[in-house]
Amino acid sequence: MRRAGLAMCAAVLGLAVLIAAKPPDDLPAPVTAPGSLPSRIDLIREQHLPDVPLTTQDGRAVRFYSDLVKGRIVAINFMFTSCRAACPLSTANIRDVQEALRVRLKQPVAFLSISLNPEIDTSAVLHAYAEAHGAGPGWTFLTGQRADIELLRRSLGAYDLDPELDKIPTQHTGLLIIGNEPTGRWKAIAALSHPTRLRQAIERVVLPVTEWQTGAVAVNAVPYADNAQASIRGQ
Amino acid sequence: MPHWRTKMLSRRDALTIGLAASGSALLGLKSLHSKGLAPSPLTTPFVEPLPIAAIARPVTAFATQADPTTVNVDGSTAFHVHGPRNVPAGAEYYWVEEREALHSFHPQLPPNPVWGYDGTVPGPTFIARSGTASLVRFVNSLPLANPLNIGAPVTAVHRHSGFQAPEDDGYPLDTFATGQSRDFLYPNVPEEGLQQNEPSTLWYHDHAIDTTAENVYRGLSGFFLNFDARDSLAGEEDTSPLALKLPGRMRTSASGLPIREYDIPIVIQDRKFDQAGFLSYDSFDHNGFLGDKFLANGKIQPFLKVDRRKYRFRFLNGSNARVYELFLGNNKPFDFAIGTDALLLPNPVANLPSFRIASAERVEVVIDFSKYAAGTEIILENRLEQVDGRKPGNLVQPGTPIVKFIVGSNTPPDPSRVPESLRPVFLGPAQLVPLVKVRRKFELVRSEGAWQINNLFFDENRIDARPKLGDPEIWTLSSGGGWVHPMHIHLSEFFILSRNGKPPPVLERGRKDVFRVGAGEGSIDILVRFTGYTGRYVFHCHNIEHEDMRMMAQFEVGP
Ligand SMILES: [Cu+2]
Description:
heterodimer, A: alpha/beta, Glutaredoxin, seven-stranded mixed sheet, B: 559 residues, mainly beta, Immunoglobulin-like, six-stranded mixed sheet, binds copper (II) ion
């Protein structure tokens, strides 16, 4: 109410243009909801982040939630090493993004690639795959029991409502699921989007909104190599 | 041409890993979904009246501001020019604050911290008069702290169906965050100055990249109505020979505020609430979020006391993903349908038994309550079943009540009418189709957990179509998959030439800017023509979860 009044006064006085330059300590406080609002962070953990046992490409036994996600910023995809179409491309995209983010973000982003073919994709197989694709530190490849991985896949929203399509593993290799566990902000984006777009989507989950790139800067942020091609690709 | 690291969808990959299906089969169909949210608490229907949003009030003119993000990083000309605005003389200035406020969806639920334009859900209704521009400053005063964990306090405002410059269109990257604001100029002139293009029911809502679905769900939407000499503000009281005299008139409330009577915009939305009664949302459901509580103008299942006379209702489906088919519970037809999406129909459609309405679609109807005895109760209900974001199912009865109309004993004079001719079209398919030289096809496909348009995801640096200013084109929108996508094209309104090769059904014979495509709805051919503005605009699925997953493309209108 007070703010609206001020805004109206400012408008009347023609001083409105100053509003954009408000100091940060003048930012609005949240309205406190009466009654008890159950923790939405806890709800996400209960519903979407099962603490299933997994094994890393180094053979380390880990729990999904407590060892890999809790307190972290994560970018998760599902893959399998024998997948020929999408997986090598999304793996390459993730590698690019990982490099770009290392320079740009203070906060580390943990990349988790989970095999949908865990019987074949043993730790050793995943280790070789990670090496071959130049995966840097902070990128964990994971295998485990199929039932656990299926639970994880569904919990994270990587499923198809059509049961026939859901049986096709490549249907689940296209998503990059991005989460900021401490803040509870989760998004998903197609892993085959341009790495610049993946990077921006991750940044939007990590950074406070006041630091999001906007307008022309956001659109053209770090114009990428095939930019010229992109501009002539229109019909 | 190949997009960045594009690929062909390969079923062969399914074989390379043996059969991954064993897990799915074991868990069964039900558990294909994540656990999902528990049903909302019970609420008693029809305990509160239907709210009608306040009419937005102009403020004293203010100096417009420059956009700090005008210059491209490569130093080239701004992609969206947005400087101090050239505001036409006589424009009305508005100042709208996006802020958090406590809102009661229902008296049996606790007040909820919603995000609303001016703190209300829905936001204030703009009333524009053709020829008088609106300059609206939207100020983002949303809190950074967000314990409800729905939405992000960063916004872009799209005036849906608006004929406006690219920089005023709420392009998804033109965001402004908490503590920032942005000015939007709405000229309120019809395309090419033609009376046939005067819009009727527009709406405005958030369009920020990656967070549109949650921000709209949290409350950021409202109506924007346009009136001209024909469909006039004076409405039924207009004595001009031009006036249609549709139901509706202006009055002043006891507290001195303008109110519109007998012409009622109603936005229908579905929402879900947790066991404590707080709004809930599932960020992991990308298929399209469905609620189990039905809101009309922000209240769960309200009632509306009506006089025994004609009313104009402007229905908007403001839901994220749900498709409705609305009926009157007494199995009487709607007396007239008079408009679809932004425009009045050329001629009214009498005795419409029901209408289907997907996200962002609008249908305007006239209901004449004079034929009912005082005390009659008529329920507006949805009979279309839908269990997930994929597509609706069958018609079922009983339907889900949304609003109860209670006919009162008042029988006031009713000078309103529904004339035979509403918004005649002089420049339409008959004139334009012979001039078409360009045809484009847009195929909607599901690919690996997300949706693509012509095998591509949205990329701000890629233009997907370059129509020329004023040149008519035919676009075919089709989908092979089992999903319904309400596709929305910015900037203009379009004719549906055919649906599945046949003439369009009766409510698709006017002009529209949202088109249901795919699954049972099939494909469409539309007549597209952009005038007035050059520049980039988006078109996208208006299942807003799909939209946030980048089921979006853009066209650049060139000279
Ligand atoms: Cu869609």
